[in-house]
Specification:
- By secondary structure, the chain is α+β, with helices and mostly antiparallel strands.
- It is built from 5 helices and 10 strands.
- Strands 1, 2, 3, 4, 5, 6, 7, 8, 9 and 10 form a 10-stranded mixed β-sheet that branches.
């Protein structure tokens, strides 16, 4: 048996998230369907670096699967892309070590959240960025980003309905906001992320940008260890799983 590692891009607009579930079509389902077809009806399980929610996108999701077919590893890219729907794309395929694990071997992840900050909407970005009409204070949001960096208990930034067991301590190595015209890119690089953490961080930073909170409030929000202390959860369609590190 060979273990194949793939990097996957997907537009999450029409999917009920990455992970297989009963209430709608998912990215994992499409990947496994394609692999089952290539394996002549034999089911093949796909393991990913982590799940993404309904409407969330990925530029650098990583998966692995085991196969007994003698297909050269790079050829899996073309084989899968031929079958997959046009909103899922394999960017790279390679042979991995037998003990490689897409989820448990991760050393960090990068997420990006896109905001279209203009009075006028851009309809061609509507599925990939959150439209905010009012001007935002970029300097204040960047100050708040610096407070987020480091090792903290991020309980306040974890969805209250999360099933996360154990410690909610995570390390954010890098938190910043880049501006490109009307596009604001919220960038978070860290050791790991809790359920909805990036969307709650972004929603809270946007409240700072609107003048509803001060940058220094982030310290008290972190210390509160209470989801109610943080801001609203930003909608899913602006979020991308950008890169997974190993």
């Amino acid at each position: 048996m060979d273990r194949i590692k793939c990097t996957v891009q997907y537009d999450g607009t029409r999917y009920a998230g990455y992970q297989v579930q009963s209430n709608g079509n998912t990215v994992q389902e499409e990947l496994e369907k394609a692999l089952t077809k290539i394996h002549k009806g034999r089911k093949v399980k796909v393991t990913a670096s982590g799940r993404t929610d309904s409407g969330v996108h990925a530029r650098g999701q990583v998966i692995h699967f085991d196969t007994d077919l003698t297909i050269p590893a790079p050829n899996w890219k073309r084989a899968l892309d031929t079958i997959l729907p046009p909103d899922i794309h394999i960017t790279e395929a390679e042979q991995a070590a037998k003990d490689f694990h897409a989820r448990y071997d991760t050393t960090g992840k990068e997420y990006r959240y896109f905001v279209w900050n203009s009075r006028e909407p851009d309809i061609f970005r509507r599925n990939f960025s959150y439209h905010i009409k009012m001007p935002l204070n970029l300097d204040a949001m960047r100050k708040a980003c610096r407070i987020i960096e480091g090792e903290h208990d991020f309980t306040s930034f974890c969805a209250s309905r999360s099933d996360v067991k154990g410690s909610k301590v995570r390390t954010i190595h890098h938190s910043t906001i880049e501006k490109n015209g009307a596009v604001l890119i919220f960038i978070f690089k860290g050791s790991g992320f809790l359920y909805n953490m990036v969307r709650i961080l972004t929603g809270t930073l946007l409240e700072v940008g609107r003048g509803e909170r001060e940058p220094e409030d982030l310290k008290a929000i972190i210390e509160a260890l209470d989801r109610e202390a943080a801001g609203k959860t930003a909608p899913p369609h602006g979020l991308f799983l950008w890169k997974v590190d190993y």
